[in-house]
Amino acid sequence: MKGKEDVIAFREIDVSRDSSTPAKYKVQATPTVIILDAAGKEVETFVGTPEESELQEAIDKAVSS
Q1: What is the CATH number of domain 1-65?
Q2: Buried b (16+ CB within 10 A) or exposed e, 3-34
Q3: Contact at 8 Å (CB) between 33 and 55?
Q4: How far is CA 9 from CA 4, 19, 39, 65, in A?
Q5: Nearest-CA neighbor of 34 among 18, 23, 47?
Q6: Domain residues of the chain, as ranges?
Q7: What is the pLDDT of residue 10?
Q8: What letter does residue 46 receive in the DSSP assignment?
């Protein structure tokens, strides 16, 4: 997402090494992409790989909230 590098943070979780974070967000399958706003509230969850346009829309929503 060009131009958002200073606004968003990306975290990848290895579910075989960290089971508490996936449990916290009720992750049932991989890949799962969860978009959080600055307050840590879930804005959007994608199970599977989202289309770039869907991902961009969710990031824009998180940044603007």
Answers
A1: 3.40.30.10
A2: eeeeeeeeeebeeeeeeeebeeeebeeeebeb
A3: yes
A4: 9, 20, 13, 15
A5: 47
A6: 1-65
A7: 87
A8: E
pLDDT in tens, the chain (65 residues): 556 556 788 899 999 999 999 999 999 999 999 999 888 999 999 999 999 999 999 999 998 87
pTM of the model: 0.83
Pick from 26, 3, 4, 2: nearest CA to 15: 26
Torsion of CA 16, 45, 57, 48, to 10 degrees: 60
Query: Which pLDDT score is estimated for 8?
Result: 81
